Amino acid sequence: MTDQSSGHPVERRTVLGGLGSLAAAGLLAGCAGDDGGDGDTPEAGGDSGDDAGATTGDDGSGAGYDKGPVDDYLSDVSNYDGAVVDEQGASSVTIAVGTEGNGGNYAYSPAAVVVDAGTTVQFEWTGQGQQHNVVDEDGAFRSDTYVDSGVHFEYSFDSSGTFRYFCGPHKSFGMKGVVVVV
Prior knowledge:
This protein has helices spanning 12-31, 68-73, and strands at residues 85-86, 92-101, 104-109, 112-115, 119-125, 135-136, 152-157, 161-166, 176-181. The protein is an alpha/beta fold.
């Protein structure tokens, strides 16, 4: 292919890159429109079902929290795809400990969840991936280390905030999670 204005050859990747940029711009323009919503409900995420909210932050999208710290903390977590599971309205939520991710059974599922203040989160061990625990980055909670399936650790999230937690033995693998309390 030849550039009509200069007569020089144009590389295929230059043309494809330009087309990709145009397509991305079109997609972004489509996202900028008014969806008719009231701005108080989370936007739907990648999963199907009631718990599929990919919630965005205090950036005008109406979710009521800043998603940036969630994305930053979970940037190296293989089972986090940017979706924050919306469990607002639930009085109790379960997070599995030792699920597939990060090169083995070194993940929490879901990796990120948003709940209302007063919600009790129950961490439930799967019995997979060696011994695990749940440790809050700021010291709000810490479980013992377990390996057996069916073990439970509960914590009631009574105040709003972003709670970042990890598995002590496997944090370096990316075994981390976030509970956002609104």
